[in-house]
């Protein structure tokens, strides 16, 4: 039977990319300039800030890119589409973040800190596309990213202008924003019959190894991600953020392993469950960073986040499909949503820097209210019928039997390449040559 839609994306992807990129080039040519001073305006030296910028870049490109390769036939698309969405979202975030500077000065001056802000504004889009991973084409993902980055920047601006919330506090809501945006997205684009797993929605032993590599990248560089925008005043606050994040991640990794084994009928570890949960501590501590000052607080938060995330993956994912019609491919609710909400709730329990408790409570209530107002506006702007028509018909999403398959988008002989890429013997020979592996094994 011939496919309903032609496999070529020439009439959709190429015009969108070329048009948007030409517009971006024109805007950058007219209004942008690079801050070429030896020291940035905020007093941060290039040599000091560049390593942190690299760490965030590794997380955005390699961490989130490899994280989705657990799908056995979707490795090319997971890494390639992640890069495509990231670069488009970062350029758009640079433009949006510079609107205020353009309004007052007529020019937008960018530096490394500007790029870090932009990459962190792009992260919610990378989180959200995890909920629809394998079910959308790259045109969908780019449109989703542009729309979501706009809403997120608007949300941060509202918090900063109206409640005087520091930019770091508003930006670290990216986990909550990205997770619930993704859930609304997968509800909007729900496919009938998703109660049963898709034909190619599978994980293999070898693809799981590459996916675990993405998790390890995220785990290693998460302390930089949480501390890169923290002001080092009072002195030592940035070190405090790094140490708290590491402790929270360490505890969440150990706790996730324990809960995974305890919840398994056979008493074994579940790879995808572990991947979803060992990062929960980093998510929770990132949201609660302004009020976490003691090591035990960070460790307790990591423990609770791992328990919540692991049990959420075990019991919530299947129920979300049946009850709410939300087919969450990468368990984003368990990985980012629930730990993010836990970190936000921890702000109520650990508030110590406010002498006036009434002001603190008003701040927290308005903080979360502004977020949900933004999400509500999103739902109203894209109602169920018109949004589904736009995404499902005009942009030609893959058929159900073509979901989670690289062959729908990539020209290469995917099966042979993926076999060579994920073949255990090939990978083993590359990293462990025969002359290094001549010792007897147990």
Could you please describe the fold and organization of this structure?
By secondary structure, the protein is mainly alpha-helical. It has one domain: Ammonium transporter AmtB like domains (Ammonium transporter fold). It contains 18 helices and two strands. It has helices at residues 13-31, 46-67, 75-97, 99-105, 112-128, 138-162, 167-171, 174-188, 205-227, 237-263, 271-277, 280-288, 295-324, 332-349, 357-381, 384-394, 414-422, 424-431; strands at residues 32-34, 108-110. It has a two-stranded parallel sheet. Helix 9 packs antiparallel against helix 10 and helix 12 (280-288) packs parallel to helix 14 (332-349).
* CATH structural fold name: Ammonium transporter fold
Question: What about the largest sheet?
Answer: 2 strands, parallel
* Mean pLDDT figure: 79
Q: Count every helix, treating DSSP H or I runs of 4 or more residues as helices.
A: 18
Q: What class, by secondary structure content?
A: mainly alpha
The counted number of beta strands is: 2
CATH architecture: Orthogonal Bundle
């Amino acid at each position: 039977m011939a496919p309903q839609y032609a496999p070529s994306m020439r009439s959709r992807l190429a015009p969108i990319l070329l048009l948007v990129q030409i517009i971006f080039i024109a805007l950058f040519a007219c209004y942008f300039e690079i801050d070429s001073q030896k020291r940035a305006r905020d007093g941060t030296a290039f040599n000091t800030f560049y390593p942190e910028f690299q760490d965030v870049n590794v997380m955005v490109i390699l961490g989130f890119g490899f994280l989705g390769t657990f799908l056995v036939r979707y490795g090319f698309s997971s890494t390639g589409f992640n890069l495509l969405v990231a670069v488009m979202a970062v350029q758009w975030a640079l433009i949006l973040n510079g609107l205020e500077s353009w309004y007052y000065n007529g020019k937008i001056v960018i530096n490394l800190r500007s790029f870090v802000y932009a990459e962190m504004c792009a992260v919610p889009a990378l989180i959200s596309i995890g909920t629809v991973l394998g079910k959308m084409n790259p045109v969908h993902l780019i449109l989703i990213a542009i729309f979501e980055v706009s809403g997120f920047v608007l949300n941060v601006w509202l918090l900063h202008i109206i409640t005087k919330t520091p930019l770091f506090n508003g930006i670290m809501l990216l986990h909550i924003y990205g997770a619930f945006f993704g859930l609304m997205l997968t509800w909007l684009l729900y496919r009938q019959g998703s109660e049963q797993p898709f034909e190619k929605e599978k994980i293999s032993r070898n693809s799981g190894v590459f996916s675990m590599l993405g998790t390890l990248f995220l785990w290693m560089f998460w302390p930089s991600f949480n501390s890169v925008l923290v002001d080092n005043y009072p002195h030592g606050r940035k070190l405090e953020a790094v140490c708290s994040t590491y402790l929270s991640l360490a505890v969440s990794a150990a706790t996730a392993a324990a809960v995974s084994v305890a919840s398994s009928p056979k008493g074994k570890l579940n790879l995808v469950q572990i991947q979803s949960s060992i990062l929960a501590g980093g998510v929770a501590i990132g949201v609660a960073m302004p009020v976490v000052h003691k090591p035990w607080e960070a460790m307790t938060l990591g423990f609770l986040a791992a328990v919540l995330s692991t049990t959420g993956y075990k019991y919530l994912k299947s129920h979300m499909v049946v009850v709410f019609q939300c087919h969450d491919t990468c368990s984003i609710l368990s990985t980012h949503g629930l730990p993010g909400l836990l970190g936000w709730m921890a702000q109520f329990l650990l508030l110590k820097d406010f002498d006036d408790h009434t002001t603190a409570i008003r701040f927290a209530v308005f903080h979360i209210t502004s977020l949900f107002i933004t999400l509500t506006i999103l739902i109203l702007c894209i109602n169920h019928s018109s949004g589904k028509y736009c995404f499902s018909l005009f942009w030609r999403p893959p058929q159900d039997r073509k979901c989670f398959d690289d062959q729908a988008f990539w020209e290469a002989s995917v099966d042979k390449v993926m076999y060579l890429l994920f073949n255990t013997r090939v990978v083993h020979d590359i990293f462990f040559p025969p002359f290094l592996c001549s010792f007897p094994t147990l």
